[in-house]
Amino acid sequence: MLRMFFPIIFSFFCISNLSANGGDDQLRKKADEIAKEILIIDTHIDLPLLLLQKDFDVTVESNNGEFDLPRANKGGLNAASMSIYTSSRTENNGSFKRADTLIYLVQQLESKYPDKFTIAVSAEEVEQNFKKGIFSLPMGLENGSPLEGSLDKLHYFFNKGVRYITLCHVKDNHVCDSSGDTTNTWNGLSPFGESVVREMNKLGIMVDVAHVSDSSFYDVLRLSKVPVIVSHSGCRSLTPGFMRCMSDEMLKALAKNGGVVNIFFGSTLLNNNVRNEYEEWQKRRQEYLKIKDHGETQFAVENPINLGSIQDVIKHIDHAVKVAGIDHVGIGSDFDGVDLLAAEIKDVSMYPNIIYELLKLGYSEKDIRKIMGENFLRVWKTIDKNKG
Ligand SMILES: [Zn+2]
Q1: pTM score above 0.85
Q2: Dist. CA 265 → ligand 1 center (Å)
């Protein structure tokens, strides 16, 4: 989750790079076939927050956000980690209650549509659901704030079905320091954060080091007895100075740990130029809207946004594979949680476009299976097997 503003209504007016759509038909057909055949798991989708803001039927195709079941089926998606997201602003101010509400909304999906959705609590369950044609919804807590300094609350969320926890969001919290904060409150993990990581290892909850500072990342790697995950991130060498993404050194350390980094799709996160242009665009928009009779639509027509390209996603996947190795990379789109998405990967119907681009780069079907889900499931199984 890193959405600053919802530009959905502007989509019609935006510039994008659609050149990839004219490519090799046979390869495209193969990509579609692979997407249908293999287990695809996306490790980070912010649907629960969207459902809190807007009640809609996710089993019907719509343009509400980036996820619904018909579009997921079209894209070959079989499982999506539901982000139980709490903002850094809610630390000590309602984060536990908010997390509980979002979990309830995921539970509602399962109870309303038992033949369509299941909250999966193990990798094996995801695999079984895939065979049965049921869509898996594992849950991940994005931000450790709702733990509120209590290991009992960690057990509570485990019992509710939460299977990964992103230790913090964009600000330092009571668990650890964040990549989005320069305060260095703890210089890594807090003492409570250390006990959280130990207890997560015991329970079999995956430790997610997306969003954490470099110091927190290395603290977790030193402490964790099992591999860790990065539910949604990218490669810092392609976004110089952007601390939210991982350095090559971190990618190598993650591979040594046996973990997996799942690459996000948001263009402002993957490309510094797109992010800078977007920030400028937002400033212009604010100035424009201050003037009487000026409206959003008119501004969008006069100021098209650069949405980026699927090549940004592919470059990050390919770089992560080159540095960490083919066994340590996956996908974690951050759908429903990012500001800008390229036209070729703008919702859950478009995973075949990623497969197509990887095929074009010479990736084998075996490699693609690993990236699209097997690597993440392997790590989850390892964590589960070594709990206790
Ligand atoms: Zn996030």
Answers
A1: yes
A2: 11
